[in-house]
Amino acid sequence: KVAIKGIERELICPACKELFTHPLILPCQHNVCHKCVKEILFAFEDSFADGGSESSNQSSPRIRISSSSMDRIDRISRSGRKRNSLTPRSTLFPCPGCQRDIDLGERGINGLFRNFTLETIVERYRQAARAAIAIMCDFCKPPPQESTKSCMDCSASYCNECFKIHHPWGTLKAQHEYVGPTTNFRPKILMCPEHEMERVNMYCEICRRPVCHLCKLGGCHANHRVTTMSTAYKTLKEKLSKDIEYLISKESQVKAHITQLDLLLKETECNSERAKQEASQSFEKLYHVLEEKKSAALRAIETSKNIRLEKLQMQVEEYQGLLENNGLVGYAQEVLKETDPSCFVQTAKQLHVRIQKATESLKTFRPAAETTFEDFVVDIAKQEHILGDLSFHSNGLEIPEINEEQSRMYNKALISWECPGKTDSADIYVLEYHKLNREEENVTWEKIEVCGKSEVVSDLDDDSSYAFRVRGYKGSICSPWSREVIFRTPPAPVFSFLFDDKCGYNNEHLQLNPRRTSVESRAGFPLLLGSERLQVGCYTTLDYIIGDTGIAKGKHFWAFRVEAYSYLVKVGVVPSNKIQKLFHSTHDVTSPRYEQDSGHDSGSEDAFFDSSQPCTLVTLGMKKFFIPTTPAAPKDPASRILPLPSCLGICLDCDRGRVGFYDAGCMKCLYECEVDCSGIMYPAFALMGGAAVHLEEAVIAKYREYNDDI
């Protein structure tokens, strides 16, 4: 028989750190007090309104939410997830037990079961703890007597006399179930929280929770595997009994582990003291180096000061000698009193030279020494940055590497990284980035703390290069910085659109996906039927499709991917006043006679294109990018053929009347030309044969959601 006081830690709520009161079972199988669940959810709601967690935490004196839980609450509130209309309204709950964000479903707190078994155990523990405190009768006249039994049907406690009065022999009340004195009255039948009038009689093996027959017939458990409650009771009880018997049989092994853990505790204490001493010695060395540098710097300043003061003092004395009756002037006045010409000339010649020098010094006065000490300013910016990164480095913590293939730069930057050993040894990662600017000498890194291995960075400048790096932290230990990776942002704001399935869309030759982000040209049976009308020397006409949104002004950028198997694809822009001509043109635009990129040296080729082509397009296909034939283009056809980038981008500048085609992976311009932007411009695509185009999806901030591991 297990001693009640030995299981106390199993009866403590992880939120309030007190004995459970009406515990609820969360989907993650942890238990939390009913009141604590409500308080945490209301704190979560307050974070939406207040934008912070401090006021929410302080408004609830009973509950003690950890800082990590509040960080999760703030993170969820910033994610913009929808809230339902229940009270509390949020369906997301940061579990204080497993430190995860739990989805409580549409019913929220009302869909959780009370753990009556745990309530009974807590009540037995409380009775053992207050054995000396009696439970009084609820029906005695003052003074009340000590109760001897409690009725589970009446939810009240009675002394012997009151029990006989309220439960007379031969009545229905005499059949009530009674137990020893208690304050824990639980219902005799467990009811379904979703169907309040139905008792639970089955157990869902998928969701691992009791359900009623209505839940199985038409509720959320309709397609789940369920079993009868008696079978689940028998199975779970047998498993639990076997597990308990196994643990009891391994008591000696458990004691050995406890002994080993005690030794590890002592060893940890000793190693921590040794680590403190080593860290203290390291900082003492830094202090010693700084003290030496400080002393040397102060000595240099003091020496320079003494030399300068000496020079200035000598200059002061020289100028004092120029005053009347002082120094040089007084001596010269005495010489002038000499009446003997020979003696005067002998003395006055040298004196005159000194007087001339003094006169010149008055005309060009300059202090003998500088008063500023600008040469003695200590630049500690670099050292300060290095000391700011001072932390514990561990050989066991792997250096993360930024994955350039999974990372991408579009409307936002998605930076992904991984560890070479494929192990997640770090608890948290720090991602830093800064804009590359040649003019700035001191680089200021922006810092983001990340729990996972990817992060979305917003608010980056267009047409700019950024350097990114990442490091891992495990407690106070950190890894070295990863190799810096440089990404370039698009040359203009990203323009979002979908393929238009109405204007000129040929559903016989083209196939759109349901989201209208991908289009595919199938070289199937309709194409074979159409080939009967073709003559020798011309090809099948292109199938065009445009974007559903136009551009009237400004500079915009969009990107897409062309499948490698694509035979022929044309991409570009078309003005609104030429869309009708694009879809109903009688010319065969893919004929070799009129193909812009055909390579034929017809003298009228460019003139025909300029006058009759309804849109500005470039040709892609067979994993190649073909630069259009223009007077400025190379004459050699081979030099106009480039490898097709994995992702292609188009930048339209309506204000300047220019359109550019980019390698969207490195944001390098492959070709640029003028375009008539007199009307509203639409993205245009043309496909022939087997081909497919996929629009690049915008980068959005994705937050991890908790899924129960079945």
Rg result = 43 Å
Give helix % range.
Answer: 25-40%
Low-pLDDT runs: 51-65, 75-90, 586-612, 703-710
State the major sheet: 7 strands, antiparallel
DSSP summary, beta strand count: 34
Enter the CATH topology name of the largest domain.
Answer: Jelly Rolls
Mean pLDDT: 78
Number of helices: 14
- What is the approximate shape? flat
Kindly provide the name of the CATH class of the largest domain: Mainly Beta
Measured by DSSP, the beta-strand proportion falls in 15-25%
Architecture per CATH nomenclature, i.e. the level-2 architecture of the largest domain: Sandwich
Detailed description of the structure:
There is one protein chain. The protein is 30% helix and 21% strand. The longest helix is centred in the middle third of the chain and has 70 residues, at 251-320. Helix 1 crosses helix 3 (67-78) and helix 9 (327-335) runs antiparallel to helix 10. Mean pLDDT is 78; it is low at 51-65, 75-90, 586-612 and 703-710. The strands form 8 sheets. It has a 7-stranded antiparallel beta sheet, with no helix packed on it. The radius of gyration is 43 Å and the shape is flat. It has 14 helices and 34 strands. It folds into 5 domains: 1-45 and 89-132, Herpes Virus-1; 136-188, 30s Ribosomal Protein S14, Chain N; 231-362, no CATH class; 401-488, Sandwich (Immunoglobulin-like), CATH 2.60.40.10; 510-587 and 613-629 and 636-695, Jelly Rolls, CATH 2.60.120.920.
